[in-house]
Amino acid sequence: MALTRRIIPCLDLKDGRVVKGTHFEDLRDAGDPVELAARYNEQGADEVVFLDITASKEKRKTIVELISRAADQLFLPLTVGGGINTTADITAILRAGADKVSMNTAAVQNPKIISEGAAAFGTQCIVLAMDVRRNYIPQDGTTEISLPDGSSCWYEVVTHGGSRPTGIDAILWAKEAEERGAGEILLTSMETDGTKEGFDIPITEAVASATNIPVVASGGVGTLEHFYEGFVTGKADACLAASVFHFGELTIRDVKEYLATRGVPVRL
Hints:
Layout (H helix, E strand, L loop, with lengths): L5 E9 L2 E6 L2 E7 L1 H11 L4 E5 L7 H14 L4 E4 L5 H9 L4 E4 L1 H5 L2 H10 L4 E10 L9 E2 L5 E8 L4 E6 H11 L3 E6 L11 H10 L4 E4 L5 H9 L5 E4 L1 H4 L5 H10 L7
Parallel strand pairs: 1-4, 1-13, 4-5, 5-6, 6-7, 7-11, 11-12, 12-13
Antiparallel strand pairs: 1-2, 2-3, 7-9, 8-9, 9-10
Helix pairs in contact: 1-2, 6-7
Subunit structure: Heterodimer of HisH and HisF.
Organism: Methanocalculus taiwanensis
Function: IGPS catalyzes the conversion of PRFAR and glutamine to IGP, AICAR and glutamate. The HisF subunit catalyzes the cyclization activity that produces IGP and AICAR from PRFAR using the ammonia provided by the HisH subunit.
């Protein structure tokens, strides 16, 4: 039997509210996170992701309280990311009711936190959140990826909400994270984030082919067809979206019924 594909709404949090932008900028308010999460629970989402995009030590209490409130109402897995820097942070998030934690900046700055988290809580709890952007300047040791227009590039890992380039090749980092114990990769392309023009298929397919852990495609979905492309062409195990769900353009049910008619196995 084919593995069921997952549909995951993502709630980007700032100051306790859900926000959505384009290319990680121009944020607009999208509502209360607990109310939105409850709506997606009713619509049949397979998971929900909370990302505290402006996380800092001062806001840690806020996110923990939010997780606790949401977990009380949800009956589906909850992944939380943002400002998680230590195993103590992971402990606090999981104790508040999250099932998984995702780490981006902290994992790049201290890769051992992936290994430590996996050893302490299990690989199923540790998600590598990898934000990437295209880099057209050749660099030794990077993985060249062909684009639909015939050009090629390599994908660079970026941190701090997309504001800081790292010089790290996305494919090599994905492989290292898997070796260190990450159980899943949440892959967001800055090229397509918020554009509604579709997922960045070249990097999604490349990461999925280079690793043996689930890959969640994120960034750019705007139509039902984009979800299909993410699964079939991009080889993703799950597709994540935000604005199309937050602003009522599509429902989880719409997406799953469409995918089922196209032969993609989903939980209805």
